[in-house]
Design brief:
The chain has 221 residues and is of the alpha/beta class. The chain is built from ten helices and nine strands. It has a nine-stranded parallel sheet with strand order 5-4-3-2-1-9-8-7-6, with helices on both faces. Strand 4, helix 5 (102-110) and strand 5 (114-116) form a beta-alpha-beta unit. Helix 2 (23-35) packs across helix 3 (52-67), helix 2 crosses helix 10 and helix 3 (52-67) packs parallel to helix 4 (81-90).
Length: 221
């Protein structure tokens, strides 16, 4: 399963990050994203919520039941083995973290899920890769700018990277041109204002815009 999931991520590239949205709103959000062609959805553990170990797996399970294999779901902001196991039981197929924790990576791989820990510096990225990561989430990718990314890609061009934090329609192509395998996107695809007002049509429009960039990139490469 893991190899198929790796290929699916590299093909679809855009991972929509859903944070703090549950129930019917979450179902409607994912439906809007799916209508726009986004097939990868991350549901995060809200570490500030004492009920996150229950709420996030419940949300993932409801999405898997609703969408089946049409959309591939993962868990985000995963900081512990306990969260890895809860996400796995709920049906998550990949684990995303803001940091690199070798124990989390190891358990993720043992459960045949895709591992995507977070890192920023060359040392962190290489350490994540050596610990067994399938992809490394460069986070926060916007913080040090495109120039920084270009500088570090020379010695680490063998590692599959996913850009996260600050990725927009204006710069997604830049990251793909640099060789990134994909991008995690929150605000533009999961805008809380649009969700709360029920404007899911705009979310679908945003998803279509992002996926048109992906499709063009796939054709050219």
């Amino acid at each position: 399963m893991k190899l198929e999931m790796n290929d699916f991520i590299e093909k679809n590239k855009v991972i929509a990050i859903c944070r703090g949205t549950y129930g019917e709103k979450l179902i409607n959000l994912v439906s809007a994203l799916n209508d726009g062609g986004v097939k990868l959805v991350e549901v995060t553990f809200d570490q500030g919520d004492p009920e996150c170990l229950t709420k996030t797996p419940k949300a993932i399970a409801s999405l898997v039941k609703e969408f089946g294999n049409e959309v591939k779901f993962g868990a985000g902001t995963v900081l512990s083995i306990e969260q890895v196991e809860a996400a796995h039981q709920a049906g998550a197929e990949y684990i995303i973290s803001p940091n690199t924790n070798s124990s989390v990576i190891k358990r993720t791989k043992e459960l045949d899920m895709v591992s995507m820990p977070g890192a920023l510096t060359p040392s962190e990225i290489i350490s994540a890769n050596e610990a067994g990561a399938d992809f490394v989430k460069v986070f926060p990718v916007r913080a040090l700018g495109i120039g920084y990314i270009k500088d570090i890609l020379g010695p680490i061009n063998h590692i599959k990277l996913v850009a996260t934090a600050g990725v927009t329609p204006d710069n997604l192509q830049d990251y793909l041109d640099l060789g990134f395998s994909g991008a995690g996107i929150s605000g533009y695809l999961t805008d809380k204002r649009l969700i709360d007002t029920g404007d899911f049509a705009t979310i679908t429009k945003h998803a279509l815009e992002m996926m048109s960039i992906v499709r063009e990139n796939n054709v050219l490469n």
